[in-house]
Structure formats: C-alpha cells, structure tokens
Amino acid sequence: xxxxxxxxxxxxxxxxxxxxxxxxxxxxxxxxxxxxxxxxxxxxxxxxxxxxxxxxxxxxxxxxxxxxxxxxxxxxxxxxxxxxxxxxxxxxxxxxxxxxxxxxxxxxxxxxxxxxxxxxxx
Length: 122
Prior knowledge:
- It is a single chain.
- With 122 residues, the chain is mostly helical.
- It has one domain (3-121).
- The chain is 82% helix and 0% strand.
- It contains five helices and no strands.
- Helix 3 (40-65) packs antiparallel against helix 4 (70-90).
- The longest helix is centred in the middle third of the chain and has 26 residues, at 40-65.
- The chain is globular and about 40 Å long.
- The relative contact order is 0.16.
C-alpha cells in the first residue's frame, strides 16, 4: 500500500470520526468522555472537535487529489491527535474505563502514522 493510499485512508477515518462527533456528539463523544457528552456544554466541545477533524480530513483529501500540499494537513492532524491524546491522559482518572486505551490506540496510532506519512510524502 502506498503512502498516498494510507494518507487517504487516514483522512477518511478522520472524516468519519469528525462527522460522527458533529452529527451525534452525545453518542460518539460519550465513549470518550462519559456522561458530560450528554450535556449541551460537552456536546459543544464535541461538535467543535468534530468540525476540526472534518476540516483537516477534507483539506488532506483535497491536497492528495492535487498531488501536492498534503504535508501541512498531515502535520495539523498530528497536532490535533497529539492534543487529544495528551488531554485524555491528563483526565484519565475521570474517563470511562475503555476511553484511555481506545484513544491511545486511535490517536496515538494516528500520530505515528502521520509522522511516517509526512516523511514519506515530503
């Protein structure tokens, strides 16, 4: 599988998660942050994070279609995922039991994949 294909798949996954957070913030964010996702204040943050991820995904996909300019979008994704990971680890004692391992796997894996992709596509 080529780096471009992997970058496209990563962007599609980011779009799916981002879209889920925007369209169903309580359901999608609830697995991550628990009951706060059922409240409007928690949903406001979930929707904002979802829109951020959807925008990064769309920018990445557009850049990949144009065959240039994907690296800054990949770096934006790395920064966003690293922030999600750090925030989750910081709040780990107050999150649902499966949230931390899931975020470590998803966000941590995405940081590593993004680092590889930015080097491979640069």
